[in-house]
Amino acid sequence: MASGPLEGLRVIDLTDDSGRFATKLLAESGASVVRFGAAGTGGPEMSAPDAAARGGLLDWWYDGGKVRVDVDLATESGRAAYAELASRADLIVETQPPGALAEAGLDHADLIATNPTLVQVSLTPFGRTGPRAGWQTTDLVASALGGVLSLCGLPDQPIAPWGRQAFNTAGFISAITGLAAVQAARITGVGQLVDVSLHEAVTTTVEQLFFQYWFDDLLPYPKVAERQGSLHWTRVYKVVPAKSGWEMITLAPNAAGLLAWMVEEGFPAAIELVGRPPEELLGSIGLIMDTIAAFAATKEAGPLFWEAQARHIAFAEVQTVAQVAENPQHEFRGFFRPVEWTGTALRVPGPLARFGDTPDEPPRPPGSFADLDELMEGWGNTTIQPEGGSLEKPLSGLRVLDLSHVLAGPMCTRLLGDLGADIVKLQTLDRASTVNDPQFPYFYTWNRSKRLITLNMKDPRAVEVMAKLIEQSDVLIENFSAGVLDRWGLSYETVRKWNPRLVYVTMSGCGHEGPWSSLVTYAPTIHALAGLTYLSNPPGRGDLGPGYSLNDHAAGLSAAFAVLAALQSRRETGLGQHVDISQMETGGYLIGPALIDMLNNGREAQPIGNRDPFGLIVPNDCFQTADGEWLAVSCRNDDEWSALVLATGIKAAGLERIEGRSARIEEVDELVGAWAASVGAEAGQEMLQRAGVPAGRIQHAGDLMADPQHVSRDMWSTFEHATFGTRPFDRYPAIWSAMSLEPYMAPAAYAGEHNFEIYPELLDMDEAGVAEAMADGLFS
Q1: CA 139 to each of CA 214, 603, 657, 777: distance values in angstroms, whole numbers, following the listed order
Q2: Which residues neighbour 278 within 8 Å (Cβ) at sequence distance 6 or greater?
Q3: What does DSSP assign to residue 244?
Q4: Confidence band for 385, pLDDT divided at 50, 70 and 90
Q5: How would you classify the pairing of strands 422-427 and 336-338?
Q6: pLDDT for the residue numbered 768
Q7: How high is the pLDDT of residue 383?
Q8: What's residue 511's pLDDT?
Q9: What's this model's pTM, rounded to 2 decimal places?
Q10: In sequence order, which ranges of 104-226 are alpha helices (DSSP H)?
Q11: Cα angle value 126/128/132 (rounded, 5°)
């Protein structure tokens, strides 16, 4: 039997590569996951013969701990077996083409008669409805159409983040959605079908894409965010060459100390810089970053990283996969865990989150095929007895105390708030600045569906206020540096005495203990340290990486999943627990297959641009079109290549099989590139999609606002904001059959906007008492 926070949850996995990550998350957290068929690809062969016999590299990453059944849904007996198992399941996660399950008589509507609480998450490339519901996609095409590739790479060379991150994002959303819907079904007795769009999931998780577009009248940034290599949208993070290797440099959070350090070392350009008037320096960020880059070029990357960190400056060495595999922080925290089996000793990354009271079980190999009758007997035929309550939204009635800031934590709580949780976001006025300021558009984008209060944690009375808030909350989440909550008197050991049912989530850069626990980190720092920056490059380079805070989004998604998993455990035990998330471990998870390959096969992944790192998709790249735009094109198999050849008229003798295309990949790219250069991007994608070939133009924010698929599915709405006026927003990336997530709550217009609402509600204070506490500095 599996163990972990999801122990006892029964899940059917009917996914291809786009959805396997969702069921991986569920299986690793203790759910009993039964995988039907073998729609996913195995990937490169494992080196050890006994490991290779259980599956390829991707099987070892995605399917550990799952049980597999050999059932053909094209047969009457296979359909009957699927329906019988579904009558015992809590959750189905599937990636079938729209209409396929209904045609087979196996869709949600066909199954709920025998299992009314059944939840089905249907993950499809573009959703089940809309003019592009039948379009094909790959991770690269999803990244192009979803906006990621408008930000990643260079102006003349789009480069997607390594490792199928669009699929990972959709997998996170699918797992989160499934757990939220199961929780709702346990209360209401009503299951539902949730239509999750991969395209929507990607679109809603691209940091600066929309806040720049929606607020160009207020911001000093381009309306259409640009591809600019590793340079962050704030212009204060960038990867540059060091004397050896590459270094992520930044002014944060100690610009004065950085300038003083360069002067201390006698660096001439820095001495000249600090001699300028302060008002001139404020407008010279580019010059300052160029000076830092010149300084970094005189140093070895590793020693430079450590000296900067010692001075509280968030530099990071760009680490290779081999370096990540030997990271002492990962070793200290046991991030590379041995697989529990009788075969060759193997290690895999994990867990994604550390559950203090219901830890994930040790990793297991990909499941072997099981006898279906024995499996059904093990699952039993007991259905869940619902509580008989009613809900407006899946998480209605749940209260989350949100102490997070910037993006990772706010991403998590935005999702939970959209799903109906009451998010009480606590701010101190001194921290409500820049991106954490409700008056700044960035805050608007990532902090809807929340109520804001202020509390001065330096005031000795604040702990008493926090105790009362915590007593009435289900979840507390924070993403401060390690040790901050302990110094506030809010350690988990303390707060669990106030509320034993509290789920207490800590998110820090490298974890709360270990030799790297005190590092100063931001998303670009973590990208560099986790291997994401290095791998997300053309061959021979290490200075690009993701063009947005991918790891912050992933950490927020990880936290939302972990919260729901811990709440599922609380339903069984009555107790909350401490959940610890290291953002560097999240980054390691995002390149999981590369780490498995390095640790067990001795193969070190290298930057290869957009080419498929697993050798399964050829072509797989972005090609400039006749109108100067870019078109992503992929062929997942020989049939799609044949369709491409037929549609385009390419002369491709000897390239009919994947083996030939892989051996002559440069020639393939030249042929497709020459065709693309003869058509417009829009016409090219339409031509190939009509032929059944995954293709999509790189879309920026303006394109996405007009995207016919998004428009047809009502992706965009507007808020009336007290400061900003009428502004757009994007909905949660799924459509629910049994309830609506509307209306969404607009972001607060100022810090403490809900003081007079929440403090009387939760602390039984009158308005005069709240006003007095604001005036004397407690609520500030």
Answers
A1: 26, 23, 21, 50
A2: none
A3: B
A4: confident
A5: unpaired
A6: 97
A7: 65
A8: 94
A9: 0.97
A10: 108-111, 139-145, 165-188, 198-203, 209-214
A11: 45
| Helix (H) / strand (E) containing 57 | helix 57-62
Amino acid type, 412: C
Average pLDDT over residues 177-191: 96
Q: Which pLDDT belongs to residue 1?
A: 43
Q: What is the 8-class DSSP label of residue 598?
A: I
Using alpha carbons, select from 172, 50, 186 the residue that is nearest to residue 123.
172
Rounded to 5 degrees, what angle do the CA atoms 688, 689, 694 make?
85
Q: At 445, is the secondary structure helix, strand, or coil? A: helix
Find out whether 767 and 755 touch, Cβ atoms under 8 Å.
no
234: confidence class by pLDDT, cuts 50, 70, 90: very high
Q: In terms of residues, how long is the chain?
A: 780
Closest by CA to 780, choosing from 540, 457, 544, 520, is 457
Nearest CA among 523, 520, 426 for reference residue 477: 426
CB–CB of 26/35 below 8 Å? no
Q: Give Cα separations from 315 to 292, 322, 521, 587 (angstroms).
A: 11, 20, 8, 17
Residue 22 to residue 15: CA distance in whole angstroms: 9
Q: What angle do CA 665, 666, 670 make, to 5 degrees?
A: 115
Q: How many helices (H) and strands (E) does the chain have?
A: 36, 26
Question: Which region holds residue 420: left if phi is over 0, alpha if psi is between -120 and 50, else beta?
Answer: left
729-734-739 Cα angle (round to 5): 100
Phi/psi at 299 (5° precision): -120, 155
Average pLDDT over residues 76-80: 94
Tell me, letter by letter, the H, E, C secondary structure of 88-138: CCCEEEECCCCCHHHHCCCCHHHHCCCCCCCEEEEEECCCCCCCCCCCCCC
pLDDT digits (tens, 9 = 90+) for 417-435: 999 999 999 998 888 889 9
| Among 325-334, 424-433, 468-477, 765-774, the least confident range | 424-433
Task: Judge whether 689 and 126 are in contact, CB under 8 Å.
Answer: no
